[in-house]
TrEMBL record, chain A:
Belongs to the AB hydrolase superfamily. The keyword Cytoplasm applies. It comes from Papilio xuthus. One of its GO terms (cellular component) is cytoplasm. Keywords: Cytoplasm. It is found in: Cytoplasm. It comes from the Eukaryota. This is Maspardin.
UniProtKB/TrEMBL annotation, chain B:
It comes from Papilio machaon. One of its GO terms (cellular component) is phagocytic vesicle. This is Ras-related protein Rab-7a. It is found in: Late endosome membrane. One of its GO terms (biological process) is phagosome-lysosome fusion. PROSITE patterns: RAB, RAS, RHO.
Length: 319, 208
């Protein structure tokens, strides 16, 4: 593997790759299909956060979440599916992966296609719930937004060069700051590493006619994370998502481009921590540490005056 | 600048613990007040859409724990802040005295482009209580000495001035955001091809 971009050469990335192994897990009868995952552990946490990448992403696009949240005790699993050509295959495969990893419930952070699949998975497993909560990043509820519904049936026979060009069209590179530019470079490298069947299958899932029924998820804790600069999704698509989940917490980012988990990882991690904090101390906790340190006694009484200069536990530190 | 573009304003509320930061935010966003005091743990935020001068803007209001140390919040927390709201309790003079350090600390951590003109809004909360410890005059004097910061006397409990204060916060934040955008605007791209063309044309001229 020869990744040359700045992010791939960064100390964070190198340290990530040298400390967490890439595991390949076969859960289908077809032995050539393997999920690729990075699992930050520890195994004692049975409700981890699973990160699902967009069409052009591999599991390692979430390395900054894995590294950043692991330091808070959160078990993060970045997972990348093998080529699945339809919804049912994907859902069944993901279910088997969760069983294989012996997880009770999962929190999902899904980006773009990953967010769509996360919603679909939560919807289809609602009678026997596997999903504890969702964080949806730059995602959608209906594949018709991509206007490829008719041609998606033919993606399987297009050469990978054509498929890559379809995706690259969305990677705007003009007028972006350094961190966004780095995130794009990183994603382009990952896109280049995908083969034809991986790309074609993901694009087929992304564009085949399908939609979410959000009312079936109205009891699910959801955070919607989106970026307000000129990203690939229009503001209409973002508004649709807000309307679909009126109960959701809205974590808007001012800027960050299409890949905020790379370009704005500190803000993304802060929002992920705030989202996961609500499960602290329950069986759905994603961390073996408390994400909410207990305030020291004395702060609870109404009369207490506390100097703000005193040394306190660090509540929202992102390293 | 396209006026159609949706605007996100990031507002940060700071002040000593127990002055009513969370209550003010809840009163403004949810129109609710509870007498029960519950210390805020960690940082959290609420979003609300408001209309400022015929523009729809979304306010992302960050509430903090009064006893929080700044360093623990991290850069992500302060990045892109458009307005900082400093709150004190009009019945507790020491919370008023702290304003200065909150302001200084914010400027250090957020390091805005133009610290002298960064929009702060000062709120003296709990005016519904009898036992005042900080007079309106004293508070106003301090605000004037700090480059004429807007000052409001509020009551989160009785919803006094809360709406008005947040309108001002939104308006000042919007002005700040618009200015920040101006600075962020990248210079026009330098077209290398265009230069090449020019040179070729020169070349053509010479050949004549």
């Amino acid at each position: 593997m020869s990744y040359m971009s700045d992010l791939s050469q960064s100390n964070e990335y190198l340290s990530f790759r040298s400390s967490i192994p890439l595991r390949k897990i076969v859960v289908d009868s077809d032995g050539s299909k393997a999920w690729r995952i990075f699992d930050s552990g520890p195994k004692s946490v049975r409700c981890p956060l699973i990160c699902l990448p967009p069409v052009s992403g591999t599991a390692d696009v979430f390395f900054l979440q894995v590294m950043g949240l692991a330091s808070r005790g959160v078990r993060v699993i970045a997972a990348e599916p093998p080529p699945y050509w339809n919804m049912k295959e994907w859902i069944d495969g993901f279910k088997r992966l969760i069983d294989y990893l012996e997880l009770d419930r999962i929190h999902i952070y899904g980006a773009s296609l990953g967010g769509f699949m996360a919603q679909k998975f939560a919807e289809l497993t609602r009678n026997c719930p596997r999903v504890a909560s969702l964080v949806l990043c730059n995602t959608f509820t209906d594949t018709s937004v991509f206007e490829y519904n008719d041609s998606s049936a033919l993606f399987w026979l297009l050469p990978s060069l054509v498929l890559k060009r379809m995706l690259m069209g969305n990677f705007t590179t003009d007028k972006v700051d350094k961190r966004i530019a780095e995130s794009i470079d990183f994603m382009v490298e990952r896109l280049e590493s995908l083969n034809q069947s991986e790309l074609a299958s993901r694009l087929t899932l992304n564009c085949s006619p399908c939609y979410i029924q959000p009312h079936l998820l109205n009891n699910m804790p959801i955070t919607i994370m989106d970026v307000w600069d000129e990203s690939a999704l229009s503001s209409r698509v973002r508004e649709d998502l807000y309307k679909s989940y009126p109960q959701a917490k809205l974590a808007h980012l001012k800027s960050g481009g299409n890949f905020p988990y790379l370009s704005r990882s500190d803000e993304v991690n802060l929002h992920l921590l705030i989202h996961l904090r609500q499960f602290d101390g329950t069986e759905l906790s994603s961390s073996y540490l408390s994400l909410v340190p207990q305030p020291k006694s004395g702060n609870n009484s109404e009369q207490a005056t506390v100097s703000y200069f005193n040394q306190r536990d660090k509540f929202v530190k992102i390293s | 600048m396209a006026s159609r573009k949706k605007v996100l304003l990031k507002v940060i509320i700071l002040g000593d613990s127990g002055v009513g930061k969370t209550s003010l935010m809840n009163q403004f966003v949810n129109k609710k007040f509870s007498n029960q005091y519950k210390a805020t743990i960690g940082a959290d935020f609420l979003t609300k859409e408001v209309i400022v001068d015929d523009r729809i803007v979304t306010m992302q209001i960050w509430d903090t724990a009064g006893q929080e140390r700044f360093q623990s919040l991290g850069m992500a927390f302060f990045r892109g802040a458009d307005c900082c709201v400093l709150v004190f309790d009009v019945t507790a003079p020491n919370t008023f005295k702290s304003l200065e350090s909150w302001r200084d600390e914010f400027l250090i951590q957020a390091s805005p482009r133009d610290p002298d003109n960064f929009p702060f809004v000062i709120l003296g909360n709990k005016v519904d209580l009898e036992n005042r410890g900080v007079s309106a005059k004293r508070a106003q004097q301090w605000c004037q000495s700090k480059n004429d910061l807007p000052y409001f006397e509020t009551s989160a409990k009785e919803a006094v001035n809360v709406e008005l204060a947040f309108q001002t916060i939104a308006r000042n934040a919007l002005a700040q955001e618009t200015e920040a955008e101006l600075y962020n605007e990248f210079p026009d791209q330098i077209k290398l091809n265009a230069n090449d063309n020019a040179r070729n044309r020169d070349g053509d001229n010479c050949a004549c």
